[in-house]
Structure formats: C-alpha cells, structure tokens
Amino acid sequence: MTGLPAYGVRARDAATLIIVRSCGPKRAILFGQRSAVARFMPGRYVFPGGAVAPGDGTMAIATPLDRACVRSMAVAGSSCRAARLALAAVRETYEETGLMLGLPGRTAGSHSSSWRRFSDEGLLPSLKSLRYVGRAITPTFSKMRYHARFFLTSAENVRGEIAGDGELDNVRWIDECETQELQMADVTRFMLDRALALTAGAVPEMPAPVFSWRRNKRSVVWR
Fold first, then answer.
1. DSSP character for 157?
2. Is residue 4's pLDDT more than 60?
3. Is the pLDDT of residue 66 over 70?
4. What is the DSSP letter of 121?
5. Considering Cα of 179, then 29, then 42, then 15, what sign does the dihedral take?
6. Angle, CA of 164, 170 and 173, to the nearest 5°
7. For a Cys staple, 42 with which of 28, 38, 147, 179, CB 3.0–4.6 Å?
8. Degrees (nearest 5) of the Cα angle 51, 28, 172?
9. pLDDT confidence of residue 86
C-alpha cells in the first residue's frame, strides 16, 4: 500500500444508516450491494447512505438528534450541521431502500422529491432514535472521498417495504452470522462490528471511533 498517489480531492460530508432487526437472540442487518461498475466501492456490500444534499438543511424534523452525538461528529459543535448529516442518512435510506424513519407530522414548503414523499405519507423525519456509531474519512489515494458519519437505529423505528431507486442491488436483511461471507470494505466491517456491539450494550457510546488512513495505513482513534 506504499507509494499510492494523493489526488488532493476534498472529502465530502456524507452519512450512513445501519439498521438492525432483532428477533430474539438473532440479529439481521440491512445491506445493499453496489453495482460492479460503480465508481465508488464497486461490488461491495454497504449500508444505505450518501452525500449531504442542499435540501437536507431545510427539512423540518419530528424529533432532534441527541446532543451527545454532536461533540464527536466533527461539526464544530453545530447542531444544525449535525442534523443535516443525520437527515442525509434518513433521506438516502429512503431513496436506496424505500424505508422511512419518521413520525406523524407535516411540513409546508418546497423540498426534494424524497422529502415530499415523507410529507405525502404524513411523516416528518425523526432523529431521536439515531445512535452515533462513528465516522470515517476516505483515504487521500482515492479519487472519490467522503467524510462519512455512521448512525444506528432499530428496524422497529422504520416503516415501509423494501424497494429503492436502483442505486443498490440486492437490498435485503442479512443474518448476522452470514455477514462474514459478504464482500465489504474494511471500514464497513469495522462499523458493523461497532454497531452490533452497541446494540448488545457491550461497548460505551463514547468515545466514538474515527476510521481513516495515515501514511497509507489504517488508523482508528477514539474521540
């Protein structure tokens, strides 16, 4: 991994949502598979997520994000920026999987088609149920870079049927015991393990991990 070029691409703010469905002692996680010809992580299994969009900052919410999350999200203490990231995770989850994280409520104004769909369903996005897992920064030797925040919620908090916009293939619930066979990036597996440990109450919420690459080597620090 030495000698890889640095492209000088600035990392874009992005967010991801890990949804865990529990049935007794068994757990399943919602995954989708990126296309084999995708520009970023082709063929890999991922959680729904993507870059923050301008409209994410204007959408009304039913419940706010827990303030305890904000301190670890590298948002300079801005609750508004933290909320935009959380909303991006909620929106991208709907677009890629058809599942909505929301509570009854309506908002006026012009929004993206995704947020209008929430309104059509009589829902406002709900952020209170989101738990913060950690963040990850794509290495400088990648031509596409993201500064992604990972959130966690229970399947009990989402509604709808799995559908999506086609950006992800094979969107489905996958049993925890089967995830070891999936083709996924190191960061995805790291955040999956962290999320499952949080779900089980096996690790503290804070400090949270920052997954990155330094001098072409994997680095994890806790903040």
1. G
2. no
3. yes
4. T
5. negative
6. 90
7. 38
8. 60
9. 97
Measured in degrees and rounded to the nearest 5, phi and psi for residue 115 equal -70, -30
Instruction: List domains and CATH numbers for the chain.
Output: 12-222 (3.90.79.10)
Q: pTM of the entire structure?
A: 0.93
Token pair belonging to 162: 């799995």
Q: What is the DSSP string of 74-111?
A: TSTT-HHHHHHHHHHHHHHHHHHH--EEEEE----S--
Type of residue numbered 133: V
pLDDT reported for residue 5: 60
Helix axes 79-97, 113-120, angle to 10 degrees: 80
Q: Give 40's pLDDT tier (boundaries 50, 70, 90).
A: confident
Closest by CA to 116, choosing from 190, 175, 60, is 60
Are 81 and 56 in contact by the 8 Å Cβ rule? The answer is no
Residue 9 has pLDDT above 90, yes or no: no
